[in-house]
Specification:
Number of helices: 7
Structural class: alpha+beta
Shape: rod-shaped
Strand order of the largest sheet: 1-2
Largest sheet: 2 strands, antiparallel
Length: 256
Amino acid sequence: MSNAYERHKYFVNQYLLHYGKTAAGLPSATTFPTQDNRKYKSAEVEILKRHHRFLRSEDESETEASWEARVAKKYYDKLFKEYALANMDGYKQGKIAMRWRTEKEVISGKGQFVCANVRCEMKDQLRSWEVNFSYVEEGEKRTALVKLRLCKACSEKLNYKRRKSAKDVARKARQSERNTAETTEITNETNESSRKRKLDDVEEMDDRAAVPNKKSRDETLVEQSSSESSRIWSAPLHVQEDNQDDMDSFFSDLLL
């Protein structure tokens, strides 16, 4: 017995020899030895639907329970609860159904040496998972810690919803960062544009203030020039009087 699966087959064979059973001839958990098997099977399924519990407490009293509850309890006691099986049809929505194994599934190695997905028969690269299974029972939300043995592909399905949620969170965070960066850039551009407009307004005001000053300087120069001209022309005319001798000499020359 070189590995665990070989040991498993050996002990299963010993079990079947001891109880006089065969793996192919094991009875189903929902089989009644009656003439009309369909009728009783249908009735049993309806009973199990109404009274089945994923987990039951060990101190439940069978004497106080109804006949239907005792049938469901008897079925529950026949299940093997070391490993669970899973139906992963709704894995993309995060909806994975689980149940315990029957005697026939334990003997075949399903859920331990064969992938626990009911629609998968892979035997290689199996990995053990402890899953916090959340379910609703009798209108109440309950949880149970169960073990699953899954292949690589089914392990991806098991964690699909969680990884997708993580990717969505990361994508939203990156989008938020991009939006923040774009908003900051737009704000900076707006502030820069506003600053430029203010500078242009200040320059325009300075230009407007500079034009009257230049006019004032020109007017001042004109006024000064007019003032000097007025002063020159309004000054009294000074006529220099000739000497009497010069006048006499002038007239004397004329009379000669």
